[in-house]
Amino acid sequence: MTLKLRHDSSGYLTCEHVSVFYLLMLNSGIMGAYTYVVRGGVFCNAQTANFLMLGISLGEGNFKHALFYFIPISAYVLGAIASEILPTPIKHYGLFRWDTWLVGFEALILFIIGFIPTTVPDPVVQVAVNFIASMQYNTFRQAEGIPMATTFCTNHIRQVGIGVAKLVRKHDQKGFHRGMEHLGMIVCFCVGAFLLSVFCKFMNEKSIWIALVPLLILFYRLAHADLTWEHDLLNKKPAGH
What we know:
By secondary structure, this protein is mainly alpha-helical. It has one domain (17-233): Growth Hormone, Chain: A (Up-down Bundle), CATH 1.20.1250. The chain is built from ten helices and four strands, in the order H-H-H-H-H-E-E-H-H-E-E-H-H-H. The protein has helices spanning 2-10, 18-37, 48-59, 63-68, 70-85, 98-113, 122-139, 154-170, 173-203, 212-227, and strands spanning 92-93, 96-97, 142-143, 146-147. Helix 2 (18-37) packs parallel to helix 9. 38% of the residues are buried. Mean pLDDT is 90; it is low at 1-8.
């Protein structure tokens, strides 16, 4: 009952809590480091680098190489499309919200990836990570009213700077607090990358399994909320959708 009252007073769903976004960011740091260190030296959480390399390849006249970058870009687009279409017209399936199912699906994919040997071409794993990273990014959008990206850090860095500027110029404690929430996201991302770099030395392709720790904790939290105090709110859309 205490948890239900806390939810009612805050107005936010469990999937919108900042701590949920911290776990997602920890997982993203692990995924990004994994594809870079273990699976081909690329970052699959976002697509800026792929578009950059696409333009460079076209400029150099290397059209065959340019076509390669359409593979991860297309996987990212498909992930966004899937995460937009699947929850429509309702935001839940059976006992759980779409957000909960997605976390479980992401954990399953990363568990399977751990069984794929490094002898398999890297793009196979890269495409899978592109797809789930896009779905995560498009599904989890706001943490307690603050727009958040859960797969990369660029905007978080910007928001930290804005928060500090607001404190210095206007003594805006609320704006500074928002900036510190973004700093927390960056720290979680870096911790995830650190953990992967340590574990990959002796776990190799199976090091992605350390991402299952935050994901399974998150799945338990979301599923428990869906089955108990938020059961009557399964049709409620999270902010930003």
